[in-house]
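User: Hi! Is it possible to get a structure for several chains at once, not just one? Here's what I have:
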Amino acid sequence: MSAKRKTAVGVIFGGRSVEHDVSVVTGHQVMRAFDPERYEVVPVYINRDGRWYTGEPLLELKNFKDEITSYKGVMSAVISPSVEHHGLIINPTSGRFERSRIKRLDVVFPAVHGSHGEDGTLQGLFELADIPYVGCGVLASAVANDKIMTKIVLSQQGLPIVEGVSFSRAEWQEAPDKVIGHITHELPQYPLFIKPATLGSSIGIGRANDETMLRAYIEVAANLDRLILVENAVTGCVEINCAVMGSGLDVRASVLEQPVSWEEFLTYEEKYLRGGEGMKSAERLIPAPLEPDLAEQIRQMAIRAFRAVDGRGTARIDFLVRPEERTIYVNELNTMPGSLAFYLWQEDGLSPQQVVDKLVEFAREAHAEKRRSTYNYQTNLLEVAAQRGLKGVKGAKGRAIRPV
Amino acid sequence: MIWLAGAMIRIYRQARFYQIEEYKSGRYLRWLLARRGRWLPARPAGAWFVGLLLALFISDAPGSFVPSAVGVISGMIAVWPPDEGEVKKGFKATARAKRLLSAAFAWAALAAVGVLVVIPHLPDVSDLRLAALLTAGFALWLFAPLWLVFGNLLMTPVEAAFRRQFVCRAARALDEVQPTVIGITGSYGKTSTKTYLAHILNGRWKAYPTPKSYNTLMGICLAINNDLAGDYGVDYFVAEMGAYIPGEIESICRLTRPAISIVIEVGPQHLERFGTLENVAKAKYEIIRALPPDGVGVFNWDNPYVREMYERGYPGTRLAISKTVNPADVPPGGPRFVASDIDETLDGLRFTVTDVQTGEREPFVTPLLGEHNVTNLLLATAVAVHEGMPLRDVARRARSLQPAESRLVRQTTPGGITIINDAYSANPVGAAYALRVLSLHQAGRRLLITPGMVELGPLMDSENRKLGEIAAAHATDVILVGAGQVEPIKAGLLAADFPPERLQVVETLAEAVNWYQNTLKAGDTVLFLNDLPDTYSS
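Assistant: Yes, the chains can be modeled jointly so their relative placement is included. Here is the combined structure:
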């Protein structure tokens, strides 16, 4: 890493997930946020099938209305888990005309939402490759991506959550009546929300007012996910979102937003497609019209929830709030929120450029923190094994093996 | 044929020394001619002489087998290779060495063929022919070093081409990986500083230090081509740069283009090659001159020559360190990182580092021995802090430091004798600190085993004498290895009233080792100070 060289940041977007398109938009917002004087942005696109590409044409959002991979200059590429590559292998299966080459990435920015991106899988690859990466680590991503696990972890930390029950697709298919019986026993009051455990962007979520609808929505959810969550619908509440940013002990919360169309339910169209460009122009109230002390309470809770899952980098925490009763529920954590919640930070005086700068800084700090732990612990095990054979080693465990 | 075989064996044996003298014909020949035993050993010469006499004075019937027998036997006696004794650094069959050997063998074979062509044309007197054959064979054998030199000459353009290619490859590899290059030079402490710096930086980034003591242009190219090439994960390439001739560091810097350069010490090491300390300083300054204007120079304030470099004002960003200045009254423009309260025990070094610029203070606890390591560690600290590592993190990394190979490495034998291996440092400063470490071991006898220091040029005698005087204060027993060069130390020891009965001079290291193994017991300590290359043994 030369002092004079620009920081090469690989921005990954797309992905094998129902949120592929949203991620392409977020990815381009992120790429545009980086200061070209200090960063060299390397676009990395994962298509719906899970194939990886890089190349200049990926930098233009308008190219994505065509078949992007047919553009000249779009090349196959992978992030290598082997530490010496520290980035992309371009043309990994080199043929007669294309030589494979390495592109070192100083930092990776996974702007991927949902499955195979926001759920810890991609993060695991970066851990293996030993490259600093923006956002939450493997565990935080995996926990926050799973609505059931999130509930378990948050309630363990004493944070208020909406009551719910969970079951697997197999349980449902095996004995639906038993599952329904269990649900009605635990959650006797309709309406209920039915959610696939790991999908984001409201996909597959249904609101049931009676048992027929409950069964129907469970069927829908069971087609989308292996685990299903049914929870009480909190009536008379508003949705409040709060973004947090930071790492370790230094975490800050943004202003609160209130999406305004919380009448029946937030549909996919409302959440992402209205207005055209990402979430920026979706209708929302910023800051949310809440009493200042209630708002502050929510912000503190956002920070606690972020810490509860061992979050770092950024996340958007969604709450359900009854302002008059002052009841608050932590609803879910998005570790890679759409548009990186740029619109919230803007209210706090942070430009998108400053946000990505900070996120890169947190990524580097997290990586430095990892380097503080030792992974290379030398023992004389192999020496002993070579001398005595495998049997000798087994018997000697704990005695003959010592650090050298 | 026998002579030729003998010559080949001799060439092969000599190639090792050629290698030690870095393939420099002049240095090799000077070494060779310095002692008659090397270039004209007694046994072969005697065998030749007796054979010659026999050939000339035994008249015989034609067709007798006696002349041939004389030739064969004297030849055999002459060329039978002598026992080599202990070999510390064996011949390494590198590609270059193989090329050199082939060329030398070719010269020898050519000369042999020449002899065989000429001899039949001599007057047909069997005595004369035999004598000529004997003489020619002997010459063939005697000139074995010359064949090496000729071989080297023949190979010079070839080697130059190979080197250029090798350097180009390294330059390309560096260009690909683009690490931040940190250059380290100094008369001593290079390898230690490099090892510590890499260890500290690895607490936050990934640093690749040149292995062992590789510090020549070719050594650095080797490190780049073998290990660094293709490792895109490396953030810092820490390169140790040695100066054996003026311009060498410059050429290394032209290849590596350091962004950060460290100058540790200017001292009398390798003085014989430079003449004066000013010339040494000039050669070291090349590492600073090679920096870009926005580069970073890191200097040891405690060395007057290095401080002078610091005060010259290039580049704009300069960091100095000191372990002698009081952190409370650092002069303006003085060192930024200062060590104080230095305490050395058998457990290692403890000291406090003050960042004068920020006022931060941090206690350092390291398992390293030898006070000179405070300087080395401060230099490494300056770089790490400049690159953005908090001083506290540096201190944390310093706890887990290990000494560099053969530099004040302490071990205990199964018999309970403590061995301090300081076989690599052979400079007056390091030697004095090593002796202080020896005297920390108060439990039993303290034996110093050393051949003394070399390559100190005109200061060699006085510095060795000084070493003897210091040793008298710290060691209870002394074994000097190699009668050839230990006189000044001996004089120094005796001048400081060291009891003569506690002092021995032996010829080989093996004898010294033998003695302590048979004499010392648990609780005693042995310090191995410096280990001379084979070119110094008689």
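The first helix of chain B runs from residue 2 to 20. DSSP finds 20 helices and 15 strands in chain B.

User: Great, thank you!
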